[in-house]
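ERR on first pass: missing label on line 2. Operator R.T. fixed the label and resubmitted. Corrected input:
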Amino acid sequence: MSKFEFPKSILSRPVWGTLEPRRGLHHLMIADAEGAEAILDVATPEMMESAHIIFIPKGTDYAKRLRALNPAQFYDGPSYAASVTRIQRVLLGAKMSTQVYLSGTESLMGQAMLECTNAGIPHTAIQTEHRGSTARRMQCVHCKGFTEDVAIDPFVCSHCGLNLFVRDHYSRRYAAYQGVCVDAEDPGNVPPSKGIYP
Amino acid sequence: MTIQFNDETFRGDYSFKNSDWAIQRFPFPFHEDSYMYSVNMEQHRGGPKGSIYEKRFDVDEHYLAEMRDRAMVLDDDPLRCQSLPHMTLAGWDLLELIMVSKSEDYPDLFELHRNGDQWRWINKPMGIDDSFTFLDAATLPYGPMEYITRQAQGDFAVLDQRDDNLWMDAGMITTQADWSLDFDIGMNFFEWHAPVPLAHEKGIFVRALKFLLNIQQGAPARRLNWTMTVNPLLDTSPENYHKWGVQKTEITPENIGSKQHLRVELQTFFRLPRSNALVFPIRCYLCNFQDLMSMPKWGRRLHRVIRDLPEELATYKGFIDNRPMMLDYLEKFDDGLPTSPGIWPEFETEPPLQK
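pass 2 clean. output:
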């Protein structure tokens, strides 16, 4: 699958990279859906000997192929939320020379990166690669609720119901983009929703 | 002089008003008849007597009303004041800076008595007399940053310095020009300024950061920034934008003079001694158009600045839709005469309006 080229944007917007094999004693790989392809591309037999793959399929069927890489540990979880305590436990025991690889949706990478930075790993030391859906995790600046998988702009906040426009302003601390009321100055005048990317 | 504190509101009935004294010392932000971003820094070493530059932390007639408004904002939304765990020492630095400055600059209003780490702070206008142990947060009713900034006008961003960058790691932000501390906390200088148009391309932030990283203890700096606000609303937060945004549409040719306010930020920058953090107080001054027009120089100049402002800036500052109505109002105060350089009103020497 070809990778999506995000348009150039403002400086708070994350820039995702391309995974490459790095030397390390341990390899923590967290991916969702098509993010599996990035792991399949980067995996080497020696890396897999000390790799822990945490994968959330989101309806895809990559799990079998990832398992076939024969990583030291493999987890196939039903949702990111379900996997968080496991990720936290793994990070708690992580030693120096652990390499972290994140791939898949921006929501998955952002939230997993937050766990890593909370564990003391600088965000610049974490490899990422975007694959699959370009839908975003959005935070409503008004009610503070998060809405996952937002692909259209404007969208309706799943918590407070306000119509929000999608900004590129991004907080690593919330692993989310900012949504701001679109019709505050003219209540009820909500432009028709379009895809976030043309 | 003794300050008469106004009993006024920044919400609801909006009874906020500026006295003649406050108008004369208003920090009009345009030193010439046009405006573009610049790194307009200067040393913060006092200024003309009575001006808002004179003291390190200016106290004016709005002090008590602003502090009441801040307390209301915090009751509604405690996330407006946050400090990441490593910023507590910077909070103490800030507490010391404000207490020392205010007690020295306004001895009739504030007193600080220090005996080792046993401190007594008296804030007469607010009726506060607290004794506490410096560096022991358990002896204060709030964390040190929150405690002192509940008693100081203006927002306070406390910036950690590391990796050749500044990080927005703590703040008391209740009078902001439409940015969210809760969202931006933890961001670096370029990230939290990311939404600002044009200035990145002009290299403004690279140069400003270089300047700020080198600010030394005892050598604070300052600059003015500005935007427009309808009604004297301090809390123009994104959090509450869905509530206040509609007020922008309530401007009419009849009420624009009293409702449309020029909102000016006096931004100062102080290096903090123990933490090496930088505190960035952002003091907001509001003045409505009709009061500004009482100074002929400001009337002429404001018209020219608003008329010639690039569209991106008028959009970013949120008044693009109201600009035509503003210009209809302001053009009546511009007779085409030249203006003297500098921000001061020069009321005595500037010619009166010729139309």
